[in-house]
Design brief:
alpha/beta, 4-stranded mixed beta sheet, 4 strands, about 40% helix, about 10% strand
Length: about 180
């Protein structure tokens, strides 16, 4: 939407978006995404745990899978993830149109999410694309324990502040946030 119809947006809020495209990523990012490609060789029962492990920092302890058989919809999840991953490889992102988006951009990042993935995406977006970029780090959150689910009040405050900046409200009329900003 930001690249194709920027006139429809007053601002943009991104909550750890899945983001990949063919570009000159760092060696750490490229290596991290190479590991995603290795997942295709895994049997279905190993796919999701391995996929989840790649989304978080290496020292994060993920909760064990709930006891009992997985819900029926879970059987479709690996195929859906593989479809997304293929789209990331095939999609030709028009970076010039995206870079022309000059309105405020908010990016919520879990501090426990994998830095070679989500951290690099946030840094790249701030450095290359969006001149009015605000990164809000939620130190104790990660991709599978996101702030909108576990810290909705703090995320709501950060979003209100973001929207106020998009509407041009003075700093004194903006809400403060309890999360960490970088």
């Amino acid at each position: 939407m930001a690249a194709k119809h920027p006139e429809r947006l007053q601002s943009l809020a991104l909550l750890e978006p899945a983001w990949a495209w063919n570009w000159d990523w760092s060696p750490a990012y490229a290596e991290h995404w190479r590991k995603f490609g290795e997942l295709d060789a895994l049997p279905p029962e190993q796919y999701m745990p391995a996929f989840m492990r790649l989304q978080v920092r290496p020292d994060v302890v993920l909760p064990p899978r709930e006891a009992g058989p997985p819900p029926p919809w879970m059987a479709k999840r690996p195929a859906g993830i593989k479809a997304f991953m293929q789209t990331f490889k095939d999609y030709d992102l028009d970076r010039s149109r995206l870079a022309a988006f000059s309105k405020p951009v908010f990016f919520a990042l879990g501090g426990l999410s994998h830095p070679d993935d989500f951290g690099e995406v946030a840094a790249r977006l701030a450095r290359v694309f969006f001149p009015d970029f605000h990164l809000e780090v939620f130190p104790r959150r990660h991709h599978f324990d996101p702030p909108h689910r576990t810290e909705p009040g703090q995320l709501a405050e950060a979003l209100r502040r973001h929207w106020a900046s998009a509407e041009g409200l003075p700093e004194g009329q903006r809400l403060s946030s309890g999360s960490q900003s970088l």
